[in-house]
Amino acid sequence: MDCFPKIKKLYGRAKVLILGLGLQGGGAESARFFADLGSSVLVSDLKSEAELSPSLTGLRKYPNIRFNLGRNDLGDVRWADVVVRNPGVKQSSPLITEARKEGKSVIMPSALFIKHCPCFSIGITGTRGKSTTTRMVYDALQKTVSQKVHLAGNVPHHSALKLVGTVGKNDIVVLELSSWELQGFREMGISPNIAVLTNIYPDHLNFYDSMDEYIGDKLNIVSFQKDTDHFVTGVDTFNEIGWRISNTRSRIHVVAPHHFRGQFTHLFGQHNRLNASLALKVLELLGVDSGQATRELSGFRGLPFRLEYLGTINNVPFFNDSTSTTPVACQTAIKAVRDRHPERRLILIYGGNSKNLPFEEMLTAVDDNVAAAYTLNGSFTAEVSSRLSAHIPQSGPYHDLGKLFTDLIAELKGDEVVLFSPAATSFATFKNEFDRGEQFSYHFRKWQKTNGT
Length: 453
Known about the structure:
The chain has 453 residues and is α/β, with parallel strands linked by helices. 39% of the residues lie in helices and 19% in strands. Helix 7 (130-144) packs across helix 13 (290-298), helix 14 runs parallel beside helix 15 (360-369) and helix 17 (401-411) packs across helix 18 (433-451). It is globular and about 65 Å long.
């Protein structure tokens, strides 16, 4: 059933305020979608026009889209019938507060899609591993089921709104869901047919008032499931949060870390084995043969900037883990690389801005495993660098990766392994973690071309 006419009837004549254009494509997709419906659209973002120029491409041609950039204006909220809140705009934002005070409809794209478009949905969230697990499930389903499979959610340039008018009721949609997107699910009282929670670690405490509040948003993924739905998570995560979902109506599947028994061709690390175990359970719930599913997951190539192996420079392996934005992520990466290259001296590149997260366990992992560290500019770097053991030499902080690579390459002896795992946000120096990862890979290729593999 085409849900486009239904949504057009609801919003086609509405005045729609897009809060948060951003740089990952979601805000631009929302603006295009509502403009194509016939809505009067106003885009608001605190970033300047220059900062947002990549996202503005193509939007200027719409006569029914206006912009208010570089500031927030409460008058925009009062003008609107509907406020579209994109991830990154906090619930406590003055504009969201005003919208609720004025009784405006506040919606989020993924929740809007699931609410109105009948299809089978798989939602995947978690502090770490949600992107990898989402792509594992999506890629494997494309090769193992007869239905049409779609990818959407918290994935750059894969807004769920792009599927409106194309998805069929027998199709499967696999969504990566952030904690912010799941706030929209709570407001609409919905959860996906299969919900996956990869893990829960401290994160985004620079946005959330407490860890409890953060966990509460994550658990929206299961809160509104029906008795025909499924919730999938790992043993350790269930032991931590199981008591909080005791009233759920769905069928709960607690997965052991070694449910997946295949051998990876490209990936490594125990965290990826758990990701694959969760993905395997989802595939089994959809009737995919376990052996076939295991073979597909074994060959998964991984995603950019997630412990991505770039190659070598003068026989030194380099790994790009730019999506490491938490101390736990860095700690996990250190263990995985040390297990893979126990004979090599580990050089860690870390740093950025703080998210107000605990980092004591990361300090221990660094002290026990790292031979030397190079740091990027930022508040997190300042917090951590002074706490590291004196036996670990540190260089930096650096404001750009070009100078860092120049100094690093000059010091390499050939017996090292280099891990770029920042453990912090990118915003001190880069647009986002993807921009940070792309720049790291660029400098790696540049130096590899000059120095050889």
